[in-house]
Design goal:
Aminopeptidase; five-stranded mixed beta sheet; 2 helices; 5 strands; about 25% helix; about 40% strand
Amino acid sequence: MEIRHKINGQKGSFQAVQDNIQAGEMTYVFAGDTRFIIDHTEVDEAFVGKGVSLKMVLDAVDFARENKFKVLPLCPFAKSVFDKRPELRDVLS
């Protein structure tokens, strides 16, 4: 599965793609110069339970670390990942 990261102005997304089929998408919006808010995560029914959402969150964490950004997870799924994984909290806003 490939995770594609797209940025369009103050918004961005991480899209999970397998065999040219979009399996899921997680969207975010920048909040200032050093923080972004994860606001929505969605997975296609055919890919539910296959770890698609987690992969997108982990890619967002990598992006945050590489760019010294902080993350505010307003999306319930993303928030649950940060709650369960203390090793990711270094990027929490």
